[in-house]
Every structure is written in structure tokens, then in C-alpha cells.
Queue: 4 jobs
Job 1
Amino acid sequence: MNPEDLLKLVTTEMPFGKHQGTLIADLPGNYLGWFAREGFPKGEIGRLLALMYEMDHNDLRELLRPLRR
């Protein structure tokens, strides 16, 4: 992970699915958990979803608060 990834979590919208248009940082934990069980998509979006899952799972969402606009 690089520091820019944290900024991407609060600026990148989910491009598909049930929560299309929702910022990755705002995706519900159960949705992230579903990806963790079923497999994250390939590419950058999958990498960001996996990072957000780890942050949610470890109760670290508050670290993103200062990065929000």
C-alpha cells in the first residue's frame, strides 16, 4: 500500500454493482466481506476494495476522516 491509496478510498466511487456510485470508503462492511469471501475484482478497484476491507475489518475507518473533503 502507498499513502495515495488512502486518498483514493475517499475519492473513488464504486464503478458497478449494488453500490455503484458510492465512495469506496463508504461501502458497508458486509459488502466488503462478500468480496473477501467471493474474490476481489482484478486491477486497481480490487486492490482498493481489499484495502478497504482490511481497514473495516480492523476498525480503522476513522483514519480516513482527515482525508475527506
Job 2
Amino acid sequence: MSVPCVRVPPEEGETTRAMLADRNLVRDDYDITVADGWLYIPVTDADAIAHHEVVSFDAPRRETQTLPEDILGFEPSLERLGRIVILDEDDDERARRVADAVMDSSLPVDTVVNRASEIRGELRVREWDVLAGDGTETVHTEYGTELLLDIAEVYFSPRLATERHRVIEQVTPDEQVFDMFAGVGPFAVPMAARGAAVVACDLNPRAVEYLRENAARNGVEADLTAVEGDVREVAADWDGWADRVVMNLPHTASEFLDTAVALAGDECVLHLYNIQHDSDPFGPGERAIREAAGEAYAVDIETRRVVRSYAPHEENVCLDARLRRR
């Protein structure tokens, strides 16, 4: 039977599936299928798909796969990261029921965890209750890039994959890019794969270890320099160097704008991520960029984008700002 499907290259399949699943748009009664060099993901509402091609495809009905909801009798809320399933359950007994169902299902899963704390500290990590399996390290594939990480030791959000891809696609082979808060490399590694020279910095020593491993895993170690430390203290070696600066530390990135401007060459694009009130989601960031640029640079805000809702009346937003030296 022909059903609406998102059609993507196979290497983008898991990232796209996770994004659609996060919005409850994946149909569970039809199989995800590879045909003629494309991956077809059946979706529940074609009109809700804004950034991917939707086609009619004769997808086979799912007959043999057992999903957690088939076992539980209800559909649990879960997030997949590589071969880890992440739960956010307040009730311990319910969490263990869901974990057992996930492990008994047909999902390709090694570990099920439940969030045990909020994100904490300068390194932005959280505690986890491991409900099934015995490890918190996994390989996550995002638009063809393999990222090894341990969710107990580094911060990572698969929900930002589409936004990262939007920025990465802007990079050209002759660019010099500085990623100020690089983590395990979800911006930096694919940017280097596009041929850019990338310097990637992070305060978390374990994140930097994974960053170097991921550069090697994806064959871009020659184009990526990983630096451990506070970017305000290590960036002086690259003053005036960058054609592009990524600032993905939404709660406090604006505090680092002086450093970002010092990194900028004669022309540079800043990608500034903020958490702002929905009454004025872009104004504070714009004002902060212009204040940091001062008289040295003309500032053109090229993109104002709401990435996702963060909390009631709070938005995670991105400003793409082009700086041109006066």
C-alpha cells in the first residue's frame, strides 16, 4: 500500500528517523525501507514535514517487529541515541517496566537509561540510572558522521541534529572555523569533512578525548585541531583567524562574544545560540553582538531562527551574524 514517506539518503536515515520520532511523526505499522538507493520512512502526517522530501511509496506493512508499545499496551516516551534508549520517567516502577519492554522488543538496543538529574556544572553533564545493559558509551550516526561518546561524561543532544546540519552545510572547503564549545565534535568533525580547517575547543577533558577519537574515526584528524581548556584563555593563538565561529552554549554564550570577535578575521560569520524569553527571542542576542563588535565591525544579522522550545515561554534560538571589518 502506498503511504507518505520521507525520502532521504541512507546515511541520513537514523538522524532523520530520530528527528521525526521526536515529533511523533513516524508510522510504526509500516517498515522503514531502502530501495533504489533511497531510505523511505513512513510518516503519519505529510503536511507536518517542512524540510524533507515526502513521496508516496509502497512500504511493506510491519509484521515481525515487536515494539515496546506492543508489549506495554501504551506508547512510552523515549529517545534513542546510538544503541542507548533514554527515558525520562519519574516513577521508578514504570521506568523499569518500560526498560524491560524496550529490551524485549525488536529495537537495536544495548542499554536503557533513565534521567536521574538535571544537567549540572560547567561541564554540563547529568547523572543516569542504568536500567538495562551495562554501559553508557555508544556510537551515534548523524548525517553520515560517526560520533563516539559517553552520555555520563559529556553533554550531547541528538535533538539538535537538523540545526547542526543547517549550519554545517554553509561551510566551504577554504574556510577557517573555530568551534568555541565543541563537545565531542558534532559541528567540528563534519565541518572538517567538508574541507574546512577547524579548531575545536572544550573545557571537558573527556569531551576533547572523544573529539580527537571522532576526528580520527571520520578521517579528518589532519584538518581538525582539538584544544582543551577555557576558550577565553586559549583563543589568543587564533586572534583574527576565523571565517566562522560556532557558539553553541545557549545559556552563557553571549558572555564569550568578546572572545568571538577577537577570533574573527576581516569577514566572519558568528553562529550564536541563546535561551531567551519568547517575548523578545532575538533582541538580547543581537544587541550583545553589536556591542561586542563595537566600531571595529559592521554587523548584518543574516538569520534569526527558533531552534526549539526550551521551556514554557523560553526559546532556544540561533542568530547567524556576519561581521565585516570597517
Job 3
Amino acid sequence: MVLLTAPATYADLVAARTQMALSLGWHIILACLGVGMPAITLIAEWRGHRTGDPAYRMLARRWARAMGVLFAVGAVSGTILSFEMGLLWPGLMGVYGQVIGLPFAMEGVAFFIEAIFLGIYLYAWDRLSPVKHLLTGIPIIVAGVASAFFVVSANAWMQQPTGFDVAHGRVVAVDPWAAMFNLSTPPQTTHMILAAFMVAGFGIAGVHAVGMLRGRHDRYHRLGFLLPFTVAAVVTPAQLVVGDWAARFVADNQPIKLAAMEGLFRTGRGVPLSVGGFAVNGELRGAIEIPYGLSLLAHGRTNAEVIGLDQVPPSDWPPVNIVHPAFDLMVGMGMALLLLSAWLGWTWWRRRDLPRTRWFLRAASLGGVAAVVALEAGWTVTEVGRQPWIVYGVMRTADAVNPAPGLVWGFVLVFAVYVVLTVATVYVLRRLSRDSPAPTAPQEHDVAGYPVA
């Protein structure tokens, strides 16, 4: 069941895919902050009201201001993405727009709800009672998570298309609800939402870790590090479990993608897990192999058969030297963040304090970068691993791209827009970070510069 549209040149395809990758890779970082940051901010505000600690209240106010900036910039990049879906991929939207239109429409509703309550939350801080103001933040959290769910469910449909039939070359019997709640939706949306909390938590904590490395060991920076880091550290083990669930789903439903993820060219039993290496002439070279690992992880048995790339023509192979390193990078960053979380958890359990070494803060300052790298690598696996299909097994990417000439100039224009957005966003956030935090009671410090508990 393959539907074809007008062909496009290879240059058109490369330009469109590169532009979409840039837009998605840029926007997804802001989207993650938009999902995770409101919850972290509300926890800080709630703790401030409950304990009376001015440091919590100052953190909540400053994070809320940054949240407003990031939401505004994310709205711009999200709008660009929505236009790109129609302009770059008319073959997809023209044929399947009626199938996947529902989650996009519902995401629009969630976006407006989030925008309305974010405005109330930011501008009514001193005009509402503490409890009422705190309650206005709850719809922001709900709408942010819902927005992520709806958008990712549309992408999940592209991995596991359902909710329609094809008769005489036309899409019929459309069921938008079945399309939105396809088999890939549960693992993929859960994986994405947890990733958002990891990016937000480790990212915010990393900023305060840098401040602590520069000698700012006041309560403001200490709490600014501990609160978001704890949220991310709690989510990380759950993310690894969900990641295993998602990988098993891929093994059962997208075996060629799994073969690309592992650089497996030949079908076999008792297949080892390959770490590292590059594909050369139909063979993965230089990899570290863990005996029986892939069979065990994919199907729960050491002698289980794992499908290789030899089961489909080479024209249907994803680019292994992109997908395989990206998968290894995602897993590696996830394991590193788990170890970093365990380091803090072990020390806190023993001493109720941070690890008394600057190496921990150095590692923590890179936690946000590691989370973003894992996020981008994961999306690379998801999207590039689906190639050459834009709708898995149904429509090829080359058949969906806009065949109009000159797409490369559109990419140049969009690239320039993102450069301006990046510079402006960094400038504004740096200006916000230079505001002096509210003074707190002086603390006694040990010889290493850490506050005495």
C-alpha cells in the first residue's frame, strides 16, 4: 500500500530535510523547557509559601521571567514549523492532512490555554493571593504536557500509520482518533515528556552549578541547583525504563530501524549488542560487542532472532552511520546522567549535602548540555531511522517533498532567522541572569567553600 505523488529532485529533498531538521532541532529544546520549567517553577513558589524562604520566592520569580521569554521565542519557532509542514511537505499534508489534523488542532487549543494562563501567572503575581496565583500555574503545566502529547502523537502516527484505508489510490474511512492513539503513541509520548523534564531540570541546575563554581555558594544558588536537579534525577531512572520499552516496540514494529540503530546487516540469532563502530561496505567495523546483548534486550531471550538490513533492498536502508552513532550517543548521555544523579543521591543520603568536590559541580554544569545532546540524538534516531519513509511503509520522503525549485534559498532564510533568534534569546536571558538575587541570611562555609549544613 504505497501512495505516490509528484517526484522531486535530490537537491529539493536535501534542502527540505535539512531545513526541517534545523527547525525541529532548534524548537524541540524550547518545547522541552516549556513542558518542564513550569512545574519546577511552581514547586519553587509552593516551597516559598510553605517555608517562608525568600530564596525560593526569588527563584520562582526569576524562572517565571525566563519562562515567559522562552515561551515567546518558542511560539515563533513553532509557527515556522507549522508553516514548513505545508510548504515543504505538500505530498504528506495533501494526502494525509485529514488523518493527522486532529492532534495538530488540539495542540493549537493547548497552546492558547498555556499562553492565556502564562500571561495571568506573569502579570498577576502581586494582584492575586498566593494560593490563587499558584493555582493559575497549574493549567500551564497541564497545557504544556498536553501540547507535547498531541504533537508527538502526530509524529508517532508517521511511525505507525493507522486510522485510514486506501481505495482506488485515495484515503478513505478516516478515523482521526485511531490515528492519534496509534500503537507508537504511548511509548513515544511518554519518552518525550520525560525527556522534557530532564532537559529542563538538568539545564536549570547547570546554570546554578556554574554560579556555584564561580564562588556563589549562597542559599539562592544552592536551592536553585538542588530543586531542578532533584526533579531531573527522579525522572532519569524512569526514562531509562521507558527507553527500553520504546526500543522493544521498535524491535517488534520497525525492525529495519532497529537494525540501523545497531548496525546489524545480517539477520541472526543470539545477536550481540554493538557499541560504537562505523558501517563500511555492508559491515559494522570497530564496534565493541556484548555477546547475546541485542537478542536479549530486543526480545528478552539470548537466542532470539533479530532482523537485519538484509531483509529489505538497500534502497530501503536508513543511513546507518547517522542512526547508529546517534543511538549510542543517546544511551551514553542517559547513562552518564543516571550516574550523576546517583552521585548526588548517595552523598545526600549519607550527609544531607552536596558532594564536597568541585568535580561534581563541573559535571553537573554540563548536565543540561548532556540532556540536550541526548534529546537531539534521540530525535535523530526517530526521524532518520524511519527513512526513506515519511509515513512508515506507506509514503516515501522523496514523494512528499515540494517539487518547486529554489527550496535551498528557503533554508538559507530560515537559517538566518534562527541565528537572529538564538542571539536575541541568549542576550535577553543573560540580561535577566545579571539581576542580583534577593539578599539572604549569611551562611557559614567550610574550607571548600560549601555552606555548612
Job 4
Amino acid sequence: MKLSNANLDQLPPGTKVPGYDRTALSPGIVHIGVGNFHRAHQAVYLHRLFETGRDHDWAIIGAGVKPYDEAMRQRLQPQDWLTTIVELDPAGFSARICGSMIDFCAIDAGQLIETMARPEIRIVSLTVTEGGYYVDAKTGGFDASHLDIIADAGNPGSPATVFGIIIAALMARRAAGIAPFTVMSCDNLPENGHVARNAVVGLAKLRSDDLAQWIEANVAFPCGMVDCITPATGPREIGIVAEKFGIDDAAPVVCEPFRQWVLEDNFPMGRPALETVGVQFVSNVAPYELMKLRILNGGHATIAYPAGLFGINYVHDAMTNPLVTGFLDKLQHEEIMPTVPSIEGVSTESYYRKCVERFSNPAIGDTIPRLCFDGSNRQPKFILPTIEARLAGGQTVDGLALESALWCRYCYGTTDSGEVILPNDPNWDRLTARARLARQTPQEWLKMTDIYGNLGNYAEFVDAFAAALTALWHNGAEATLAAYIGD
């Protein structure tokens, strides 16, 4: 059955359809970046809220600025912006039709600015990917030299970036006497609210100090921690929706049954009562964020590269390999988890065990190449800060050095059996060249200071890294992991 408003009552039995009148919804949020994660996460939380009968003035208008955003718009429009969400619970799959998005702005900067300037829009949220915030790789601050930013700064009346469009909409509201909306990043990166603020304020400064100061004083950028494993939609996922549930959806989403959202409660223009459907509102997101970055994201990095060198394709298959899980368990308990500060009412051990359960879910079909992807961006976020924290405390880093050496060995471009590893990083050619140098001289890998910073100056880390990489080349990944686990 083709998904649409008209066909909701004809969908196969067992499919959960919206229990609220979608025609009674009105928008309160513009969301830029209508990808799978947004539809599995933020959109589902709002859908659940609407099911309780409240806050129907907080529906979503989708938006985007990239060509692929237009492709998504074209897929969703014939089905009235509805999305089938299939939760891949090993105990039994379930499907719900999510109806919290009621429109999708044309991919046109002028129309998007006009939409965001409407007084009923009180939140503009973003999932524009970790790399979409124009962060300078060397300083960690805003990259004002990027060509996109320079172009927007010189043409404020015709912005092309998300942040130029946000500034234009804020200025339109200011001119009309309408209070500014809250900018809410939903991307998976540390201090995402601060990063979003840096991008908006940084671009504004290129135009006017007064404009930048006004934004800093008047616009809220709450930080948030988001989590829900959401694979890309391909033939496998479309087949699950069509064959198991009998729904013809041009852009379904499959995801794990787990989702988490921790938000800083900083919404001057108001917000939906998402705490009633499981969102945690706190004064400081940082401890939750650090727990996720180190245990979950660091855990993904820990299993990714040994599994990649073993030629394993699926994450759940990696979790059946005793060398992979033994490495994960020892590294987490001895070096990663001790760096995570305690959070009242939260057990880091329980959180870790839940991560292991999630990684082991065979229904998700998450892949090792996805976990290995973009290590040059992910390692500095998920692994290297933990190394720095342990070195600062005078603690050992043998396991973390081995994880870093496994990444280096993976970037050489072959598995332990000699199979070619396809390019899997925007900087793949550079990484491969550096990994080839490091085979004979391990310290060459650590000379990438834009990734490793000054870690190459710490003898304890350099020595541990060199020993690990040498062992990987001389003995292979299996023997090296077995030796580490047995110590």
C-alpha cells in the first residue's frame, strides 16, 4: 500500500498510524537536514508527544540547502511528508508511521529565510553532519577562511550556507520586531550548541561586530547529546518495509529500538514538553556527552579497526569475535571508563553493557566500514582526548595506543589477509602514504599534528604506539590482540 494520508486507514494490521489529527498540527520548528537520523530521532520524539494530545503547535517544517535535500523532498512530498519508522528489535520488528513533519520548504534560500522569519517558528534545528559546521581542523574554532563562508560574507543578501541563511532570518525577525528563534544542533559532535554558535557568530563577525554581538546576546544555542543507531536506507531496508509490513514508502527509516536525547534547557522562546516522552533536560549536558563520546563512540572505534583488519563486514559479527570483544572490554574498563566522570543516578557500567547489547543487535545491519569511515575526523573526537586525559593523570595508555596503531595499520590499505581496503576517509591518500612511512618508522604517523596535536611529544604514548604498530606488522592483528588481552 502506498504511504499517504489518504491510505493510513488501509495500511496492513499492526502498523501504528498517527493517533492525532495531522490537519490540526501547526509548525513551531524548522529543521534543516531531513536525513534518516532526524526522522528516527527528533521527529519520533515529537510524534510521541503529539500522541499524548499536547503541544500540537510544535510540528516540523523540513528544510535543506543541498541537492540531496531536494531529492528527499521529492520522495516525501507524494506521501504527505509521512515516514515509516521500523525499529529493528531482535525480539520482533515494529513499524510506526511518523507524522510530526507537516511541510518541507522548497530548496530555495529566499523561501527558507521567509519561513524561518515567521513568528510561530521558535526553534530552528539542524542535522547538517559533523563536518557541516566549518570547524578549523588545526584550531578547533570556526574556519572563517573557507570559500563558502567568504562567499556568504560577501553576499549577505544571497546566502548559500545554512549559517548565512540563519543570520538572514534572524535579521529579518529583528527588523520586524520578532524575537529570535533558538538554534538547536542535533548533530553528533561535542558541545554541538557551542559549535553552532561559533559558526553563526563567526560568520556574522565577517559582516559586522554589532551583528555578531547582537546574536551572542540574544540567540540561544542549547547543547544536546543525541543517540540512535540509524543505518542508511538501501534496498535491504526498503525490502524490510515492503515485504514485512506491506508499505510502499519511498524513504523509510530503520533504526535500533534505543534512542536517547539529553538537552540543555535553554529555550527563551519556549519549547515542546519533550520531557514527557523521555528527553532529559539538564543544566549541563557535558557529562552525558563525555560518557557517550568515550564509551559508545570510543567503543565503536575500538571494535572498528581490528574487525576491519580481520575482514569482518557487519558490526554484530564483530561482536561474536572473542578478540574484538575482549579488546573492547579490557580497554573500556582499564583505560576509557575510568576517565568518565560520575553522573548522579547513572551507572557507567550499565551504560557500557547497553552499548555492547546495541552493538550486538544483528537486525541493524550496521557495517564495519561505516564505523571505520572518516577516522581522521573521528579519532580526534572519540579517542585522542581520552589519551590526553590519561597522560595528564600520569596513567598508562597501552590499550589506547594499540587502538591508534590499529587505525594506522588499517589506513595502510590492506587487511591482515592481504585484501585491499577501499578508500574510507576524505584524507585517504594522505593517510595511506603516512601509514606506509610508519611501517618502518612508527613516529611518522604521529607527525600529523592536525590530528594528533602535541601527543607526539609524550614519550609514554610514542613508545606505546611504536610497540603496538611494530607488533601488528610483525605478529599480525590476531596475535597482537591476544597478547594484549592476556596481559
